[in-house]
Amino acid sequence: MATTTKERARPAAGDAEPSQEKRLEMYRMLVELRYCEKRAYDLFLQNLIKGTSHLSLGQEAIAAGFAAAMRPDDWTFCTYRGHAHTQARGASMTGVLGELMGRECGLLKGKGGSMHLTDVEKGAMGSYAIVGAHLPIAIGAAWSAQYRGTDQVAVCFFGDGTTNIGAFHEALNMAKIWSLPVVFVCENNLYMEYTPIHQVTAVEHPAADRASAYGLERIIVDGNDVDEVYRTAQRTIGMARAGKGPSLVEAKTYRHSGHSRADPAKYRPEGELERWLERDPIKTYRERLLGMGVAAATLDGIEAEATRKVEEATAAAKASPPPPASLIEQDVWADGGAAWRN
User: Fold this and answer.
1) C-alpha to C-alpha distance for 339 and 30, rounded to whole angstroms
2) Sheet of 154-159: strands edge to edge?
3) Which of 169, 232, 323, 336 gets the most CB atoms within 10 Å of its CB?
4) Please, are residues 98 and 320 in contact by the beta-carbon 8 Å criterion?
5) Which domains does the chain have, with CATH numbers?
6) Average pLDDT, the chain
7) How far apart are CA 87 and CA 242, in angstroms?
8) In terms of C-beta density within 10 A (0-12 exposed, 13-18 middle, 19 or more buried), how is residue 319 classed?
9) What is the per-residue pLDDT for 2?
10) Cβ atoms within 10 A of the Cβ of 201, count?
11) Do the bridges between strand 219-222 and strand 247-252 make them parallel or antiparallel, or are there none, so unpaired?
12) Residue 236: what pLDDT?
Protein backbone atom coordinates (compact mmCIF):
# COMPACT_ATOMS: atom_id res chain seq x y z
CA MET A 1 0.00 0.00 0.00
CA ALA A 2 1.35 3.46 -0.87
CA THR A 3 1.97 5.89 1.95
CA THR A 4 -0.91 8.33 2.28
CA THR A 5 -0.61 11.99 3.17
CA LYS A 6 -2.26 11.25 6.52
CA GLU A 7 0.49 8.75 7.37
CA ARG A 8 3.38 11.05 6.54
CA ALA A 9 5.22 13.02 9.17
CA ARG A 10 4.16 16.66 9.14
CA PRO A 11 7.02 19.16 9.27
CA ALA A 12 7.56 20.14 12.90
CA ALA A 13 8.57 23.54 14.21
CA GLY A 14 12.22 24.07 13.37
CA ASP A 15 12.25 21.69 10.41
CA ALA A 16 14.29 23.66 7.89
CA GLU A 17 13.64 23.33 4.18
CA PRO A 18 16.76 22.21 2.30
CA SER A 19 18.53 24.89 0.31
CA GLN A 20 18.85 24.56 -3.46
CA GLU A 21 22.50 23.62 -2.96
CA LYS A 22 21.48 20.86 -0.55
CA ARG A 23 18.77 19.67 -2.93
CA LEU A 24 21.25 19.40 -5.79
CA GLU A 25 23.63 17.52 -3.49
CA MET A 26 20.85 15.05 -2.65
CA TYR A 27 19.89 14.67 -6.32
CA ARG A 28 23.50 13.88 -7.16
CA MET A 29 23.55 11.35 -4.35
CA LEU A 30 20.30 9.72 -5.50
CA VAL A 31 21.55 9.35 -9.05
CA GLU A 32 24.97 8.00 -8.07
CA LEU A 33 23.43 5.47 -5.68
CA ARG A 34 20.98 4.30 -8.35
CA TYR A 35 23.53 4.06 -11.15
CA CYS A 36 26.02 2.22 -8.95
CA GLU A 37 23.37 -0.30 -7.83
CA LYS A 38 22.34 -0.88 -11.42
CA ARG A 39 25.96 -1.51 -12.31
CA ALA A 40 26.22 -3.98 -9.43
CA TYR A 41 23.25 -5.83 -10.95
CA ASP A 42 24.96 -5.89 -14.36
CA LEU A 43 28.21 -7.20 -12.85
CA PHE A 44 26.31 -9.92 -11.03
CA LEU A 45 24.77 -11.08 -14.32
CA GLN A 46 28.29 -11.13 -15.82
CA ASN A 47 29.33 -13.47 -12.98
CA LEU A 48 31.81 -10.88 -11.73
CA ILE A 49 30.00 -10.61 -8.39
CA LYS A 50 29.92 -14.00 -6.69
CA GLY A 51 27.33 -15.24 -4.24
CA THR A 52 24.31 -13.03 -3.78
CA SER A 53 23.65 -9.35 -3.26
CA HIS A 54 20.76 -7.33 -1.87
CA LEU A 55 20.01 -4.21 -3.88
CA SER A 56 18.29 -1.07 -2.62
CA LEU A 57 16.94 0.07 -5.99
CA GLY A 58 13.98 2.31 -5.16
CA GLN A 59 15.05 2.99 -1.56
CA GLU A 60 17.81 5.52 -2.24
CA ALA A 61 15.97 8.53 -0.78
CA ILE A 62 16.34 7.19 2.77
CA ALA A 63 20.10 6.81 2.49
CA ALA A 64 20.52 10.18 0.74
CA GLY A 65 18.22 12.15 3.03
CA PHE A 66 19.84 10.96 6.24
CA ALA A 67 23.42 11.13 4.94
CA ALA A 68 22.83 14.74 3.86
CA ALA A 69 21.79 15.63 7.42
CA MET A 70 24.66 13.85 9.20
CA ARG A 71 28.04 15.18 10.24
CA PRO A 72 31.23 13.46 9.06
CA ASP A 73 31.88 12.17 12.59
CA ASP A 74 28.40 10.63 13.00
CA TRP A 75 27.98 6.90 12.56
CA THR A 76 25.90 4.82 10.16
CA PHE A 77 24.95 1.21 10.93
CA CYS A 78 23.07 -0.69 8.23
CA THR A 79 21.92 -4.11 7.11
CA TYR A 80 23.15 -6.40 4.35
CA ARG A 81 21.16 -4.10 2.01
CA GLY A 82 23.78 -1.49 2.73
CA HIS A 83 25.49 -0.51 -0.53
CA ALA A 84 23.64 2.82 -0.75
CA HIS A 85 24.10 3.74 2.91
CA THR A 86 27.84 3.09 2.76
CA GLN A 87 28.31 5.04 -0.45
CA ALA A 88 26.07 7.89 0.76
CA ARG A 89 28.49 8.50 3.64
CA GLY A 90 31.26 9.09 1.12
CA ALA A 91 32.78 5.66 0.63
CA SER A 92 34.59 5.27 -2.68
CA MET A 93 32.47 3.94 -5.54
CA THR A 94 35.51 1.99 -6.69
CA GLY A 95 35.85 0.60 -3.18
CA VAL A 96 32.21 -0.47 -3.12
CA LEU A 97 32.23 -2.16 -6.54
CA GLY A 98 35.66 -3.66 -5.87
CA GLU A 99 34.42 -5.15 -2.61
CA LEU A 100 31.36 -6.63 -4.32
CA MET A 101 33.66 -8.19 -6.92
CA GLY A 102 36.10 -9.52 -4.31
CA ARG A 103 39.00 -7.38 -5.54
CA GLU A 104 41.95 -5.96 -3.65
CA CYS A 105 40.75 -2.38 -4.27
CA GLY A 106 37.59 -3.11 -2.28
CA LEU A 107 36.74 -1.33 0.95
CA LEU A 108 37.80 -4.46 2.86
CA LYS A 109 40.29 -5.65 0.27
CA GLY A 110 37.70 -8.04 -1.12
CA LYS A 111 37.38 -10.02 2.11
CA GLY A 112 33.94 -8.82 3.19
CA GLY A 113 31.77 -8.77 0.10
CA SER A 114 28.29 -7.37 -0.42
CA MET A 115 26.91 -7.95 3.06
CA HIS A 116 29.80 -6.50 5.09
CA LEU A 117 30.61 -3.14 3.50
CA THR A 118 32.46 -0.93 5.98
CA ASP A 119 34.36 2.37 5.82
CA VAL A 120 35.14 3.49 9.35
CA GLU A 121 36.92 6.65 8.17
CA LYS A 122 33.65 7.77 6.58
CA GLY A 123 31.53 6.80 9.58
CA ALA A 124 30.06 3.74 7.81
CA MET A 125 30.40 1.31 10.69
CA GLY A 126 29.46 -1.85 8.87
CA SER A 127 26.71 -3.74 7.11
CA TYR A 128 25.39 -6.61 9.19
CA ALA A 129 24.18 -9.90 7.73
CA ILE A 130 22.47 -11.06 10.94
CA VAL A 131 19.01 -9.50 11.17
CA GLY A 132 18.81 -7.10 14.10
CA ALA A 133 22.40 -7.73 15.25
CA HIS A 134 23.54 -4.16 14.68
CA LEU A 135 20.92 -2.39 16.81
CA PRO A 136 22.67 -3.19 20.10
CA ILE A 137 26.00 -2.28 18.49
CA ALA A 138 24.58 1.09 17.40
CA ILE A 139 23.44 1.90 20.92
CA GLY A 140 26.88 0.89 22.16
CA ALA A 141 28.40 3.51 19.87
CA ALA A 142 25.82 6.05 21.02
CA TRP A 143 26.61 5.26 24.65
CA SER A 144 30.31 5.78 23.96
CA ALA A 145 29.54 9.26 22.57
CA GLN A 146 27.46 10.05 25.64
CA TYR A 147 30.17 8.71 27.98
CA ARG A 148 32.95 10.63 26.24
CA GLY A 149 30.94 13.83 26.15
CA THR A 150 30.96 14.26 22.38
CA ASP A 151 27.83 15.16 20.44
CA GLN A 152 28.14 12.41 17.84
CA VAL A 153 25.00 10.57 16.78
CA ALA A 154 24.51 6.96 15.67
CA VAL A 155 21.92 6.34 12.95
CA CYS A 156 20.81 2.73 12.66
CA PHE A 157 18.94 1.49 9.57
CA PHE A 158 17.02 -1.79 9.46
CA GLY A 159 14.21 -3.49 7.58
CA ASP A 160 10.61 -4.00 8.62
CA GLY A 161 11.24 -7.65 9.50
CA THR A 162 13.69 -6.58 12.20
CA THR A 163 10.83 -5.13 14.21
CA ASN A 164 9.84 -8.70 15.10
CA ILE A 165 13.33 -9.51 16.41
CA GLY A 166 14.09 -9.33 20.13
CA ALA A 167 17.14 -7.10 19.61
CA PHE A 168 14.85 -4.37 18.22
CA HIS A 169 12.84 -4.14 21.43
CA GLU A 170 15.86 -4.52 23.70
CA ALA A 171 17.79 -1.79 21.88
CA LEU A 172 14.87 0.67 21.89
CA ASN A 173 14.23 0.08 25.58
CA MET A 174 17.86 0.58 26.60
CA ALA A 175 18.29 3.59 24.30
CA LYS A 176 15.29 5.29 25.90
CA ILE A 177 16.25 4.43 29.48
CA TRP A 178 19.76 5.80 29.00
CA SER A 179 18.61 8.66 26.71
CA LEU A 180 21.18 7.69 24.10
CA PRO A 181 22.00 9.79 21.00
CA VAL A 182 20.74 7.30 18.42
CA VAL A 183 18.16 7.46 15.63
CA PHE A 184 16.55 4.16 14.61
CA VAL A 185 15.29 4.13 11.01
CA CYS A 186 13.01 1.32 9.83
CA GLU A 187 13.09 1.01 6.04
CA ASN A 188 9.63 -0.50 5.60
CA ASN A 189 9.56 -1.84 2.04
CA LEU A 190 6.46 -3.94 2.84
CA TYR A 191 8.22 -7.32 2.69
CA MET A 192 10.45 -9.19 5.10
CA GLU A 193 12.16 -11.55 2.67
CA TYR A 194 9.27 -13.03 0.75
CA THR A 195 6.54 -12.50 3.35
CA PRO A 196 4.41 -9.34 3.48
CA ILE A 197 5.13 -7.72 6.85
CA HIS A 198 1.42 -7.14 7.53
CA GLN A 199 0.74 -10.88 7.51
CA VAL A 200 2.98 -11.54 10.50
CA THR A 201 2.71 -8.34 12.54
CA ALA A 202 -0.11 -7.38 14.89
CA VAL A 203 0.02 -3.66 14.08
CA GLU A 204 -0.26 -1.81 10.77
CA HIS A 205 2.99 0.11 11.11
CA PRO A 206 5.56 -2.33 12.49
CA ALA A 207 7.92 0.32 13.88
CA ALA A 208 5.86 3.48 14.42
CA ASP A 209 2.93 1.73 16.12
CA ARG A 210 5.33 0.32 18.71
CA ALA A 211 7.09 3.60 19.48
CA SER A 212 4.76 4.52 22.34
CA ALA A 213 5.71 1.33 24.19
CA TYR A 214 9.14 2.89 24.69
CA GLY A 215 7.99 6.46 25.28
CA LEU A 216 8.95 7.54 21.77
CA GLU A 217 7.16 9.73 19.24
CA ARG A 218 5.27 8.00 16.43
CA ILE A 219 7.08 9.12 13.25
CA ILE A 220 6.12 7.92 9.77
CA VAL A 221 7.67 9.45 6.66
CA ASP A 222 7.43 8.94 2.92
CA GLY A 223 10.72 7.14 2.36
CA ASN A 224 10.58 7.95 -1.36
CA ASP A 225 10.58 11.71 -0.73
CA VAL A 226 14.16 12.79 -0.06
CA ASP A 227 13.11 16.26 1.16
CA GLU A 228 10.78 14.76 3.76
CA VAL A 229 13.44 12.28 4.84
CA TYR A 230 16.00 15.08 5.12
CA ARG A 231 13.72 17.25 7.27
CA THR A 232 12.98 14.33 9.58
CA ALA A 233 16.66 13.43 9.76
CA GLN A 234 17.58 17.01 10.67
CA ARG A 235 15.03 17.06 13.47
CA THR A 236 15.72 13.65 14.99
CA ILE A 237 19.51 13.90 14.68
CA GLY A 238 19.32 17.40 16.14
CA MET A 239 17.35 16.11 19.13
CA ALA A 240 19.86 13.31 19.71
CA ARG A 241 22.79 15.71 19.43
CA ALA A 242 21.18 18.06 21.94
CA GLY A 243 20.89 15.28 24.52
CA LYS A 244 17.16 14.73 24.06
CA GLY A 245 17.49 11.00 23.48
CA PRO A 246 16.57 8.54 20.74
CA SER A 247 13.99 8.60 17.97
CA LEU A 248 12.31 5.87 15.93
CA VAL A 249 11.45 6.68 12.32
CA GLU A 250 9.44 4.44 10.00
CA ALA A 251 10.17 5.28 6.36
CA LYS A 252 7.69 3.77 3.91
CA THR A 253 9.39 2.68 0.69
CA TYR A 254 9.58 -0.14 -1.83
CA ARG A 255 12.35 -2.21 -3.37
CA HIS A 256 12.11 -2.47 -7.13
CA SER A 257 13.64 -5.94 -7.25
CA GLY A 258 13.38 -9.08 -5.17
CA HIS A 259 14.86 -9.64 -1.74
CA SER A 260 18.13 -10.74 -3.33
CA ARG A 261 19.35 -11.61 -6.79
CA ALA A 262 18.03 -15.15 -6.29
CA ASP A 263 14.47 -13.84 -5.76
CA PRO A 264 12.23 -13.17 -8.82
CA ALA A 265 9.62 -11.56 -6.49
CA LYS A 266 6.70 -13.51 -7.96
CA TYR A 267 4.81 -13.13 -4.68
CA ARG A 268 4.03 -9.45 -5.29
CA PRO A 269 0.45 -8.63 -6.35
CA GLU A 270 -0.06 -7.70 -9.98
CA GLY A 271 0.37 -3.97 -10.56
CA GLU A 272 2.02 -3.22 -7.20
CA LEU A 273 5.50 -2.66 -8.64
CA GLU A 274 4.14 -0.46 -11.42
CA ARG A 275 2.29 1.75 -8.91
CA TRP A 276 5.45 2.23 -6.87
CA LEU A 277 7.54 2.93 -9.98
CA GLU A 278 5.34 5.97 -10.53
CA ARG A 279 6.68 7.21 -7.18
CA ASP A 280 10.31 6.44 -8.01
CA PRO A 281 12.35 8.78 -5.76
CA ILE A 282 14.60 9.95 -8.60
CA LYS A 283 11.81 10.52 -11.11
CA THR A 284 9.67 12.48 -8.66
CA TYR A 285 12.58 14.53 -7.31
CA ARG A 286 13.75 15.50 -10.78
CA GLU A 287 10.22 16.70 -11.53
CA ARG A 288 10.15 18.68 -8.28
CA LEU A 289 13.49 20.35 -8.98
CA LEU A 290 12.42 21.29 -12.51
CA GLY A 291 9.24 22.76 -11.03
CA MET A 292 11.39 24.83 -8.66
CA GLY A 293 13.23 26.36 -11.61
CA VAL A 294 16.36 24.20 -11.69
CA ALA A 295 17.56 24.00 -15.29
CA ALA A 296 17.22 20.63 -17.01
CA ALA A 297 20.80 21.02 -18.21
CA THR A 298 21.99 21.15 -14.59
CA LEU A 299 20.28 17.85 -13.79
CA ASP A 300 21.45 16.31 -17.05
CA GLY A 301 24.98 17.28 -16.10
CA ILE A 302 24.65 15.58 -12.71
CA GLU A 303 23.42 12.42 -14.43
CA ALA A 304 26.24 12.49 -17.00
CA GLU A 305 28.83 12.93 -14.26
CA ALA A 306 27.34 10.00 -12.34
CA THR A 307 27.59 7.84 -15.46
CA ARG A 308 31.24 8.81 -15.86
CA LYS A 309 32.01 7.97 -12.22
CA VAL A 310 30.37 4.55 -12.50
CA GLU A 311 32.29 3.73 -15.68
CA GLU A 312 35.61 4.76 -14.12
CA ALA A 313 34.90 2.85 -10.91
CA THR A 314 33.90 -0.26 -12.87
CA ALA A 315 37.09 -0.16 -14.95
CA ALA A 316 39.25 0.33 -11.85
CA ALA A 317 37.53 -2.53 -9.99
CA LYS A 318 37.85 -4.89 -12.96
CA ALA A 319 41.55 -4.06 -13.27
CA SER A 320 42.22 -4.72 -9.59
CA PRO A 321 43.46 -8.24 -8.74
CA PRO A 322 41.88 -10.57 -6.19
CA PRO A 323 43.36 -10.17 -2.69
CA PRO A 324 46.54 -12.20 -2.06
CA ALA A 325 46.39 -15.22 0.21
CA SER A 326 48.74 -13.42 2.62
CA LEU A 327 45.79 -11.27 3.77
CA ILE A 328 43.82 -14.22 5.09
CA GLU A 329 45.15 -13.95 8.65
CA GLN A 330 45.00 -10.17 8.84
CA ASP A 331 42.16 -8.32 10.59
CA VAL A 332 41.25 -11.42 12.60
CA TRP A 333 41.86 -9.79 15.99
CA ALA A 334 41.74 -6.08 16.74
CA ASP A 335 45.40 -5.97 17.78
CA GLY A 336 46.69 -8.94 15.80
CA GLY A 337 46.48 -11.35 18.73
CA ALA A 338 44.36 -12.55 21.63
CA ALA A 339 45.42 -9.89 24.16
CA TRP A 340 41.98 -8.28 23.99
CA ARG A 341 40.59 -11.24 25.97
CA ASN A 342 42.51 -10.04 29.01
Assistant:
1) 44
2) 124-128, 75-79, 154-159, 182-188, 247-252, 219-222
3) 232
4) yes
5) 5-318 (3.40.50.970)
6) 91
7) 27
8) exposed
9) 39
10) 19
11) parallel
12) 98
